[in-house]
Amino acid sequence: MKFIKWFLAILVTLIVAVALYLTVFFDPNDFKPEIVNAVKKQTGRELVIGEDLSWTFFPTIGINLGGISLSNPDGFMPKAMLEVNKAVAEVELMPLFSKQIEIAQLSLDGAKINLVTRKNGSSSLDGLTGKSTEKPVTPPAESSAKTQLTSIDVGGVSITNTEINLIDEAKGQTQTLTLKQFTLGAFSLDKFAPIAYEFAAILPDMTINSQGEGQIKLSQDFNQLMVEKLNIETQVEGDGIPNKKLTAKVSVNSQIALDKKQLSADISQFTAMDINAEGKLAVNYVGKVPQISADFQLGDIDLDALLPKSDTAEKQTAATPSQTQAVEPDLSAVNGLDVKLKLAVKSIKLANLSTQNWLMDLGIKNGMVDLKQLTADLYQGKLIVNAQVDARTKVASYQFDKQISGVQIRPLLKDAAELDILAGTANFNVKGKGKSLIPELLKKNLLANGRFDITDGALYGVNIPQMIRSAQAKLKGDMSADTKEERKTDFSSLTGNFTLENGVATNPDLAMSSPLLRVAGKGSANLLTEALDYRLTTSLVNSLKGQGGSEKDALAGIDIPLAITGTFQKPEYALDTQALLNNQLKEETDKAKEKLKDSLLKKLGGF
Questions:
Q1: CA-CA distance, 292 to 262, in Å (whole number)?
Q2: Which of 208-212, 250-254, 549-553 is predicted least confidently?
Q3: Which percentage of the chain shows pLDDT scores above 90?
Q4: What angle do CA 117, 122, 128 make, to 5 degrees?
Q5: How far apart, in whole angstroms, are the C-alpha atoms of residue 277 and residue 295?
Q6: Is the Cβ–Cβ distance between 124 and 78 less than 8 Å?
Q7: Strand partners, 247
Q8: Which residues, including other chains, have CB under 8 Å from residue 303's CB and lie 6 or more apart?
Q9: pTM, full prediction
Q10: Which of 63, 90, 108, 204 is 20 to 30 A (C-alpha) from 312?
């Protein structure tokens, strides 16, 4: 018992002696001028330590710093780049004698950082790398071995109320980032330690609040950093955000090979705007351009729910001056990307258009965006697309190859454009290229060619047999022809080729076949004005009996002109009655000539 008392007495005496020595003979303020001069020499900046440095002795030895500021370069506002209200470092004394660092607590409170970018491109960070050109002397291997630390133990780290202001004088914008709190629990090499943070940002068009917690581990050789069970929740608000508010949750495990400069992340859960996803991410940042590889699987995505309502969009359009000139999107960032992305999506709904089983393989490298393949199930059919975008020039160029097979065209047109003009099973392919990503210029500059083939379908909005019957009756003087039948024309096939140039799609060989009719012709569709201009020739194969006609039709075999005009939304169909009459008269005249010729031949004895 006496031994324990004596041991404690000696220990207390030793601590008191160290405290007296440090207080009386070792004043940390003696080093303030040297620290200030060293910073001035290396950076050209003014370092101010406003408050006296002081020791702490219980329960650990440490040092208090306060009123610290580091200036911005001359002429910058604000004048201070860094301001620190209070910093405390507490270190266990005894482990230092065994070449071990045991930090009881690191605390930083009230730090403020002002990073300014001026109109001429200079910034607050210029010159911080130092002006000295002397190479550092590498200590001998033996000396390094003697000073190598055997362990690092940190009782905890607390950073509170840290504010970062990003000031862009050219744009007249200030972005404020606030690290409200960051804590690190008891930390040792090769052991997981708890971490937690709370972060906020005020940007010109949105505000962000984020908080998270997880575990972190650093390997003994400082080469591997692991983050596990990191759960992050983020809220974003702003006018440009869908429904003006977004909440996202992420659960991730990550590993960073610090020596090889490689990062891998396994995202077990991502939830935002009713979208669920999971996947893997890998980043190799050893080179000038980081290499990024990602493979994600997503659930159902309803993009309609994320877009502004139509009335809001119309108000925004009305509020936008018509003379405002659209500008090309800035794709310069693409030149600094090396990305491989694979994406699988269960379903996507956009503009009331429903699609399923999306698979995408995308690559970005050297300013080229290569959509190697995009496939999806589309209205009982299949969509296959590959495309490339060249972003190396100010005005981007592109090319694509798109195929649609076995698609039910009527429900697709209804959902996509509220059009009920065509039904059938459609096959469609088109290849094209162009320049500019501005919507209007995209339509004007697009050069494309393709083919369509629709089987077992119908044209809605027009009943060609009924139109012919009505025209035929009126030619005979019957002005009361029935026009109350359904406006629909069935066909067995509808085919054609087309080209697209200057915003106008031209179809030179439209052909429609049915048991009753044959339709052939050509025309155009203007994508800019949505105007239709088709001139077709219709002929009856036999009779219109199946749709109310006589046993043998008087117009069978006669070419019947048909015009399609109007717009995509309101197509107009019309028969050229005068041309029909002329064709019928010509047919009757030709028949009369044949009869007269036959009669003369008989009278002349067959000569």
A1: 10
A2: 549-553
A3: 35
A4: 100
A5: 11
A6: no
A7: 235
A8: 348, 349, 350
A9: 0.70
A10: 204
